[in-house]
Specification:
The complex is a heterodimer of chains A (234) and B (337). Chain A contains eleven helices and no strands. Chain A has 234 residues and is mainly α. In chain A, helix 2 packs across helix 10 (186-196) and helix 7 (131-139) runs antiparallel to helix 8 (144-155). Chain B has 337 residues and is α/β, with parallel strands linked by helices. Chain B folds into two domains: 2-231, 3-Layer(aba) Sandwich (Rossmann fold), CATH 3.40.50.300; 247-332, 2-Layer Sandwich (Alpha-Beta Plaits), CATH 3.30.70.260. A six-stranded mixed beta sheet of chain B has the order 6-7-8-3-9-10, with helices on both faces. Chain B has a four-stranded antiparallel beta sheet with strand order 2-1-4-5, covered by helices on one side. A four-stranded antiparallel beta sheet of chain B has the order 12-13-11-14. Classes of the chains: A mainly alpha (234), B alpha/beta (337). At the A-B interface, helix 7 and helix 8 of A face helix 2, strand 6 and helix 3 of B.
């Protein structure tokens, strides 16, 4: 099965695909990942904030029922495997974009799958804040909104960036998965050539590119988090 | 003026209810440096948080210049909190913001324009003696410097009252002294009333004019620092003033009579009272216990003298000791305390 992987004709074919299809697939994967992450943060951030401030002892306590529903919905969305969620999201995707096929269409289920995850990440970042700092802000006459915007978010920036980096690498993995049922990008190439047509070399190349992408996202994220952390003496 | 009236605070926990404060009544006058002292768990921190309503009292009221803070809406309360600011044991600076932005923070909350806030912050940095730290981040400063920035921040909104919650407990003795000097200076120059929560007797001694001793959620004793220090009445006060335990160090010989001599601001300069009594009256007193402190040029404290049992000698000694004024002498009959 793998023994003919590096035969001259296989290598030649792989090189053609690398030249003609991979650049566009790389672009599709990157933009689907970045766009989906952006939307997931846009949706997940407020939910994550609500999870923390809405608690009984929080800055802006919400009714118990609201918090319960919020938690159940987030857990529910997180428990459905991504591939099934994508299929379940087809009707919604069709309403929003008119189609369920293609890279743009894969962004809808990606966001639905990723925002509850981002909400939990934001929740954990905000819980790291020293409660004494919040008390300080209250003692200075800060309103709940001011505490969120001027204290909680700025104080947790390094942690948020680290967590968003985790989110982006996870979403990159989801993007590749979406290639199996209509999504575009590197995942599609790996499945179509590697799995359906036994061209393992193409699959290998797609996987290596995905690995490099994860490394790039992770190291940029880590560097940014460290650079923006003012608790470090530099 | 801050009046705390019959204030009680009860916490409900899963383990049952805890009465943190029981029927506290105190008055802090404008310009006071008021110490609230007590052991851990005495309820000090809860009390100070009731003053600015970070904790809502279960019963009773806090009046600031006659205004009942408990009756205010959240919005009104936020406004009052610009007049009653706070510094903390852990400084509680925003770690991701520069010192300048930290000091601007309460002004930002109050909606002051950025330029104006910056100008005020620079003045405050000058007052707390760190004009060159505007662009530094808190992590780059020492503990004492961080507390100075926190003090500058607390002064930004020109408050009437500054609450200090164990503000020097995380600092070394030298830095503690410097911060206390700064607080005293602020009190004198800006006329800000300061309420200090502490477990350190030395802090009260150094800058407070009045003190309340909190013990088990109640005020055990309250008054002028000099009075309370010179002649502590309650057990809690005695424990704080005589941490080594006065009772244990006093051996009473049979046939000896014991006088308690309380110095309440007597002139200390050049008056070795006990020695002078031995020379003038030929009464040899046995010093059983002494704990005196000089505050300024006056002496405060407490001494136990053992005297021979003749009534005449005792009377003569009492007359001699009280001659100078500001000295209180009482005979201790049994169970010396």
């Amino acid at each position: 099965m793998f023994n003919k992987m590096f035969s001259p004709e296989n290598v030649a074919e792989a090189l053609t695909i690398l030249k003609e299809e991979v650049p566009f697939a790389l672009w599709e994967t990157t933009y689907a990942t970045l766009l989906a992450t952006a939307f997931a943060i846009l949706l997940g951030l407020p939910f994550g904030i609500l999870l923390v401030v809405g608690e009984k002892d929080g800055v802006l306590p919400l009714p118990k029922g609201v918090m319960y529903v919020l938690n159940v919905v987030i857990n529910l969305l997180r428990s459905v495997p991504f591939l099934l969620l994508m299929i379940l999201a087809f009707p919604l995707t069709r309403v929003i974009l008119g189609t369920t096929v293609g890279t743009a269409a894969s962004i809808v289920p990606l966001v639905i799958a990723a925002f509850p995850f981002v909400a939990r990440l934001v929740e954990s970042s905000l819980r790291e804040i020293n409660p004494n700092i919040i008390e300080m802000a209250q003692s200075m006459g800060a309103s709940p909104m001011q505490i969120i915007v001027k204290v909680m978010l700025p104080e947790s920036i390094p942690s948020l960036i680290s967590n968003f980096t985790i989110a982006i690498t996870t979403i990159l993995g989801y993007t590749a998965m979406s290639g199996t049922i209509g999504g575009g990008g590197l995942g599609k190439i790996a499945i179509n050539y590697g799995y359906h047509r036994y061209k393992y070399l193409v699959m290998l190349i797609a996987v290596i590119i995905l690995i490099v992408l994860v490394q790039v996202f992770q190291s940029v994220g880590t560097k940014l988090a460290v650079k923006l952390d003012r608790r470090v003496k530099h | 003026m801050i009046e705390i009236k019959n204030l009680s605070k009860t916490f409900r926990t899963t383990a049952g209810t805890v009465e943190a404060l029981k029927n506290i009544s105190l008055t802090v006058n404008d310009g006071d440096i008021y110490g609230i002292i007590g052991m851990s768990g005495a309820g000090k921190s809860t009390l100070v948080r009731c003053i600015n309503m970070l904790e809502r009292p279960t019963e009773g009221a806090v009046l600031m210049d006659g205004q009942d803070l408990g009756a205010l809406t959240q919005k009104e309360l936020r406004k009052v909190r610009r007049d009653v600011t706070m510094i903390f044991q852990g400084f509680n600076l925003l770690m991701q913001k520069t010192c300048l932005r930290n000091i601007c923070f309460p002004l930002e909350l109050a909606g002051v324009k950025k330029e104006e806030a910056k100008k005020r912050a620079m003045e405050l940095l000058e007052i707390v003696g760190l004009p060159d730290k505007a662009g530094s981040y808190p992590a780059q400063l020492s503990g004492g410097q961080q507390q100075r920035i926190a003090i500058a921040r607390a002064l930004a909104t020109q408050p009437k009252v500054l609450l200090c919650d164990e503000a020097t407990s995380a600092l070394d003795p030298k830095t503690t002294h410097d911060i206390l000097e700064l607080l005293k200076d602020i009190n004198e120059r800006l006329g800000i009333t300061i309420i200090i929560i502490t477990h350190q007797m030395s802090v009260v001694e150094e800058i407070c004019n009045r003190v309340a001793i909190l013990d088990g959620g109640v005020v055990a004793e309250e008054g002028e620092v000099s009075e309370v220090f010179a002649n502590p009445q309650s057990d809690a006060a005695k424990r704080l003033v005589f941490p080594d335990g006065e009772e244990e160090v006093v051996p009473v010989h049979p046939g000896e009579r014991v006088l308690r001599v309380v110095f309440n601001g007597a002139m200390a300069a050049g008056a070795p009272l006990i020695t002078q009594m031995a020379i003038d009256e030929k009464i040899a007193a046995n010093i059983l216990y002494a704990s005196t402190k000089c505050l300024g040029d006056k002496v405060y404290g407490n001494m136990l003298l053992g005297l021979p049992e003749e009534e005449e000698t005792v009377q003569r000694a009492i007359r001699y000791l009280t001659k100078g004024g500001n000295v209180l002498v009482t005979e201790v009959k049994e169970n010396v305390q």
